[in-house]
Amino acid sequence: MRPLRTVLIANRGEIALRVIRACRELGLRSIAVYSDADAGAPHARAADVAVRIGPASAAESYLRGDHLIAVALAHGADAIHPGYGFLSEREWFARAVREAGLIWVGPPAEAIAAMGSKTAARTLAIQAGTPVVPGTTTPLRDAAEAEALAAEFGYPVLLKAAAGGGGKGMRVVRAPGEVAGALDAARREAQNAFGDDAVYLEKYIEGPRHVEIQVLADAHGTCLALGERECSIQRRHQKMIEEAPSIAVTPELRARMGAAAVAAARAAGYVNAGTCEFLLDRHGAFYFLEMNTRIQVEHPVTELVTGLDLVQWQLRIAAGERLPFTEPPSPRGWAIECRITSEDSTSGFLPSTGRVTRLELPTGPGVRWDGGIGVGSTVGLHYDPMLAKLIVHAPTRADAIARMRRALDDLVIEGVATSADFHRRLMDEPAYQTGDVDIQWLEARLPALLAATPDAAVTRRVAVAAALLAAQGRSGAVRSRERQADAVGAGGASSAGAALVADGGSPWWHAARRDGLGGV
Fold first, then answer.
1. In this structure, what are the phi and psi dihedrals at residue 449, rounded to the nearest 5 degrees?
2. I need a labelling partner for 64 at 20 to 30 A (CA). Which of 197, 406, 448, 518 fits?
3. What pLDDT does 28 receive?
4. Residue of 294, 425, 461, 483 marked active site
5. Sign of dihedral through CA atoms 345, 347, 350, 352?
6. Please, what's the largest Cα pairwise distance for the chain?
7. Angle CA(170)–CA(173)–CA(178) in degrees, nearest 5?
8. Which among 321, 219, 320, 212 is positioned nearest to 266, based on CA atoms?
9. Which of 169-173, 231-235, 345-349, 477-481 is predicted least confidently?
10. Summary mean pLDDT of the chain
């Protein structure tokens, strides 16, 4: 085992804080890096050491691997944890970290390279006997080849960028006449997003679920599947809500999908935490999509149903520890995660910027907040809009939905628009409550979901709260005028102003406001 005492976190926001907390519980020293936009950010304040890494632009700060390694060496780090996003899946960065004599908290560079290209990953999966969607394993040469393959597989087909993810460089093609234009568009988008215009083709599966398997492997030969996560609630190929387990997965199917994920991971020589993503059709057939060679945004739901701290195990495995178990734990209860983003769902999910002026977090049994903001945090446009993750755990799925609904009611973020209202509406959606969804469901349902108005009971509740607030305001104004008169008579105008402010921010006022907004 290599000594592991100090870890540099090459990331920001909530995942940086998550790693810092894991380091602290393991007795490790943490080093945070921050850009000019993140000076004074919660992750920079929480670490044992914080170092400026560059200007606000990610290209000049969090994506400068040479600077990150130099900071790690200068400040005595033994290891670098990349989190997710930024450089977490860059084979060259993992290799450079290793060549600098540092520990890379993640899979070997060779495994990242093997799974970094979707076409290479498909080839490995096929060799390992893992089911894949029918399609190509090499990039398309031109539109003529794409049309021939589409005719062979049958329409509709999906054009996908070989590098990257997040829905970039993807086009669904339903007829021969659409192939050439869709291929050009997919190539342009892939080049702009990933610097690589390679695109491949696969059969488009109608109405599938997106189900992924968490894998954890040590360097001593143990590789385990830790169950599945349901990630079908997506908008523009971006996950918005995740669950563990999946309502569509039986114990028998879980075992088969887990075995397929382990086979693919072993074929890549995988070590550390990773995720195999699958499409699951309505008949129980599943198809390998890709492997994410990093910790996932949605890892907390797996942690809550397995009782394992995946980030701590990332660090322990990187230091050479063996996994102490050889069988995966069965899921206990149900966990749901909502991604809280700085997006205004009522305005087409446009990004929102500003300064967080108020933050009240939900608490209580089974409620977890993985956040990267605090009061005073500035939210800009330099980085991903995700502010935090709200996660709940309960004995059953119905209980978890009810708990999430309550937690969302308790959450207050002011100063910047967020997606919280969208999540509240979704928790009340009958199809979501029964689990009757697929990866296209939200896109089709979204306009009606956002246009829905509160029911009569909610409207009455808000009206009553508004009336109470108005009455409080009138009586408060009278009292304030009386106090102001007294204060002026005593030569204390400034104290009268303070009384006005104090009255407007009374606990009663805030309680009534929360009650009024709680049902919206």
1. -65, -45
2. 197
3. 98
4. 294
5. negative
6. 91
7. 115
8. 219
9. 477-481
10. 89
In whole angstroms, how large is the CA radius of gyration of the chain? Answer: 25
Q: For position 486, what pLDDT does the model report?
A: 52
pLDDT one-digit tens code per residue, 13-30: 999 999 999 999 999 999
What is the model's pLDDT at position 455? Answer: 54
How many angstroms separate the CA atoms of 140 and 236, rounded? 24
502 burial via Cβ count (<10 Å: 0-12, 13-18, 19+): exposed
CB 75 within 8 A of CB 52: no
Annotation marks residue 282 as catalytic: no
HSE at residue 450, side-chain half, CA atoms within 13 A, is 14
Contacts of 425 (CB under 8 A, 6+ apart): 449, 450, 452
pTM over 0.90: no
Mark out the alpha helices in 90-245 (DSSP H runs).
91-99, 109-116, 118-128, 143-153, 179-194
Measured between alpha carbons, how far apart are the two ends of the chain, in Å?
A: 54
- Residue 500: predicted pLDDT: 31
Position 359, amino acid: L
Q: Under a CB-based contact definition with an 8 Å cutoff, are residues 51 and 33 in contact?
A: yes
Three-state secondary structure of 40-65: CCHHHHHCCEEEEEECCCHHHCCCCH
Between the alpha carbon of residue 256 and those of residues 210, 213, 228, 252, the distances in Å are 16, 11, 11, 6
Q: Tally the residues of the chain.
A: 520
- Mean local confidence (pLDDT), 238-263: 97
**The pLDDT of residue 482 is above 90:** no
